[in-house]
């Protein structure tokens, strides 16, 4: 079957998470977790579901950008796309008029991610496999044929990537079996959003410890004394042997980041995440160098636009943890490039997953990374946030603080139609209710 794509719909779906300060940080004080939600219809009835993560008002702009890409997708068959996936990636990212909006960054790249995520979902469904398994079963040659190596061949050529994938085939079956049995290690961000009062923070931390969580991320960056107090509180609750990470969401200048984080060194954070502007590669390198003697690494990636930025962060030794994002980069295609570059530089990948649908999506990529690329779990973990999973047809399964490999065919981001209807902006019931208040 050819699975010709005959229609694309995109909807603005928003959840009022800001009401309870879920997802709040030093820069995003009122986040409404949202998605530009894409459905591809095919002539044989099979559908592909995709999304990109956004916040509230920004969603309508991403929806417009997805509509602008529609003509490049509708009318193509799945076979036509996947038999030259690199070419299709380039078609979307290199359109002579629309690339002016990026290229490969910002709103147009978020839209590209939403569309390509739906194409990957469609492909996995057509093959009857969860996406991670589709990738794991692919021939290394087919994997590299999905990647656009333009702009990264100075650090990673197609031949080198192929060689890496072929070498990592040894032990692949054991690692797959291990993942099916044990799952992939996760950490939680759900206990310590910046807007949570101490009482809530303590309760969530107590509950998380009881459920087996051992790695915790705390939001920092708004008030130095308050950060010291909150981080001491969390460290006291989780004890010396559990892991603590801190996340400033780009709040500081470079020197400010160094002095602020040095003050928090007593709570022994494993990493400081997004200490400064996500575009400041050399700034990150300066911070990483200054904090290395304190045993604190730099993590970044949730707002790293594309593979070129990751390439330079790696070249400059500016990060010790690579945080891929399933919706910020150009879908699976570009994430594959970053996983391979991270492996070449031997920097662990710890994906970003705070947001709606990001846990559902990124678990597939990190499973592939372990089974087929890195073969390593040391210093690696995937973020987990405990919000909004009830809206998904195939929600993540967490067992003993590990992501259990999804079993349903696809890329796990199909939402229930009833949830989409209720949360669609502005006409959904949830938003009518809030507008009337
Ligand atoms: C606005 C988002 O909730 C952001 O704070 C998420 C994030 O930085 C993370 O999960 O890491
Ligand atoms: Mg973050």
UniProtKB/TrEMBL annotation:
Domain Mandelate racemase/muconate lactonizing enzyme C-terminal: start-end pairs: 198-294
Record-level Gene Ontology MF annotations: L-fuconate dehydratase activity; magnesium ion binding
Pfam families referenced in this protein's UniProt entry, alphabetically: MR_MLE_C, MR_MLE_N
SUPFAM superfamilies: Enolase C-terminal domain-like, Enolase N-terminal domain-like
Alphabetical list of PROSITE patterns matching this protein: MR_MLE_2
Cofactor(s) the record lists: Mg(2+)
Reactions the enzyme catalyzes: L-fuconate = 2-dehydro-3-deoxy-L-fuconate + H2O
Statement: the UniProt record of this protein carries the keyword Lyase: yes
Protein EC: 4.2.1.68
Keyword entries, A-Z: Lyase, Magnesium, Metal-binding
UniProt record, GO biological process: amino acid catabolic process; carbohydrate catabolic process
Superkingdom, taxonomy of origin: Eukaryota
InterPro entries recorded: Enolase-like_C_sf, Enolase-like_N, Enolase_C-like, L-fuconate_dehydratase, Mandel_Rmase/mucon_lact_enz_CS, Mandelate_racemase_C, Mandelate_racemase_N_dom, RHMD-like
Family: Belongs to the mandelate racemase/muconate lactonizing enzyme family. ENOSF1 subfamily.
Identification of the protein by name: Mitochondrial enolase superfamily member 1
Organism per entry: Acanthochromis polyacanthus (spiny chromis)
């Amino acid at each position: 079957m050819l699975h010709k794509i005959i229609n694309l719909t995109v909807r603005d779906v928003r959840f009022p998470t800001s009401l309870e300060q879920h997802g709040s940080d030093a820069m995003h004080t009122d986040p409404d977790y949202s998605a530009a939600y894409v459905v591809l219809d095919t002539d044989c009835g099979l559908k592909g579901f995709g999304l990109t993560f956004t916040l509230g008002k920004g969603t309508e702009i991403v929806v417009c950008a997805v509509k602008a890409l529609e003509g490049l997708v509708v009318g193509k068959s799945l076979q036509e796309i996947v038999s030259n996936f690199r070419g299709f990636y380039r078609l979307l990212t290199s359109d002579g008029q629309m690339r002016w909006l990026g290229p490969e960054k910002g709103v147009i790249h978020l839209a590209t991610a939403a569309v390509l995520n739906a194409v990957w979902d469609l492909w996995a469904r057509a093959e009857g496999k969860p996406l991670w398994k589709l990738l794991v079963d692919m021939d290394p040659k087919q994997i590299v044929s999905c990647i656009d190596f333009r702009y990264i061949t100075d650090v990673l050529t197609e031949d080198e990537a192929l060689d890496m994938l072929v070498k990592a085939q040894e032990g692949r079956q054991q690692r797959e079996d291990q993942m099916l049995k044990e799952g992939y290690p996760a950490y939680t961000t759900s206990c310590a959003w910046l807007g949570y009062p101490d009482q809530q923070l303590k309760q969530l931390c107590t509950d998380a410890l009881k459920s087996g969580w051992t790695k915790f991320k705390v939001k920092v960056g708004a008030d130095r004394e308050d950060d010291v107090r909150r981080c001491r509180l969390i460290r006291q609750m989780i004890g010396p042997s559990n892991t603590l990470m801190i996340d400033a969401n780009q709040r500081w200048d470079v020197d400010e980041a160094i002095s602020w984080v040095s003050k928090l060194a007593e709570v022994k954070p494993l990493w400081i995440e997004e200490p400064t502007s996500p575009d400041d590669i050399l700034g990150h390198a300066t911070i990483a160098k200054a904090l290395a003697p304190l045993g604190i690494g730099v993590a970044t990636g949730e707002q790293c636009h594309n593979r070129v930025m990751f390439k330079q962060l790696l070249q400059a030794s500016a990060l010790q943890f690579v945080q891929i994002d399933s919706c910020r980069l150009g879908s699976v295609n570009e994430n594959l490039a970053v996983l391979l570059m991270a492996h070449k530089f031997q920097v662990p990948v710890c994906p970003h997953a705070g947001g709606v649908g990001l846990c559902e999506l990124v678990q597939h990529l990190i499973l592939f990374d372990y089974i087929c690329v890195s073969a390593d779990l040391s210093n690696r973990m995937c973020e987990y946030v405990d919000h909004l999973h009830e809206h998904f047809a195939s929600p993540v399964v967490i067992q003993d603080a590990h992501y259990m490999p999804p079993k349903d065919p696809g890329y796990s981001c199909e939402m229930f139609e009833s949830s989409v209807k209720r949360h669609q902006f502005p006409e959904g019931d949830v938003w009518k209710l809030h507008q009337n208040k």
